[in-house]
Prior knowledge:
- Homodimer.
- It holds the Pfam family Dirigent.
- It is found in: Secreted, Extracellular space, Apoplast.
- One of its GO terms (cellular component) is apoplast.
- By secondary structure, this protein is mainly beta.
- It has a single domain (39-186), classed as Allene oxide cyclase-like (AOC barrel-like).
- The protein has two helices and nine strands; from the N terminus they run ααβββββββββ.
- An eight-stranded antiparallel beta barrel has the order 1-3-4-5-6-7-8-9.
Amino acid sequence: MAKTLNFLFSTMFVILLNPTTTRSHSFSRNLSPKTLGFKKEKLTHLHFFFHDTITSKNPTAVPIIRPAINSSTGFGTLFMVDDPLTTEPNINSKLVGRAQGMYASASKSEIGFLMILNFVFLEGKYNGSTLSLLGHNAIFSEVREMPIVGGSRVFRFARGYAQARTHTVNLKTLNAIVEYNVYVSHY
Length: 187
């Protein structure tokens, strides 16, 4: 009996000292924001114009899926975009970034898009930083509000919203200039 108890205690001692058995098998842990170098949270307002050009020799938005059904709202049409973002409504004003991603007609009853975009900034302290927008855009509403769901670099852990207001739209060519006001909290 003593030998058996001695064997059990020895085995338990080896198991407890073995680092592979004492490590947590958890895949997560809590961190303080300071651990990642985050300081005080900031609120930033960005203002720019989004140039969506569908009909031209050099379009910035192209349809990549057109459904086989006829729909007054274009339901099911998917566009891939790489739209310039400028400081003024004039396309020749200062380029501050690009809206890259896609939008799709997601409503049978109104012209409403599912927007999946990254605002990729090219200017100043935001150069190389991005904000990700994912939301519903009822394009004939005067002001549309869409969530900002994340970001990178300067905008890590970003959250907020974007307000879009149509500046101009040509219903024949479908080319549009949209004013954006974006409000984001980030570190």
